[in-house]
Amino acid sequence: MNSNIKRPTIKDVAKKSNVSVATVSRIINNLDGYSEETRKKVIEAMDELGYQRNAIARNLKVKETRTIGVLRPKISTTYYVEILNGIEDFAQRNNYSVIICNGGDKWERMSEYLQVLSERQVDGLIVCSIPPDDTLCKRIIDSHIPTVLVSGLSYKYSLPYVKVDDYQAAYSATSYLIENGHKEIAIISGPTEDPIAGVPRLNGFLQALRDNNISIKKNLIKEKGFGFIDGVEGMNELLETGEKFTAVFAASDDCAVGALSVAHKNGLKVPDDLSIVGYDNTNIAEMSYPPLTTVAQPLYDMGKKSVEMLIKRISYNEKVESIIMPFEIIERETVKKIKDI
Question: Which parts of the sequence belong to the HTH lacI-type domain (predicted)?
Answer without folding.
Answer: 8-62
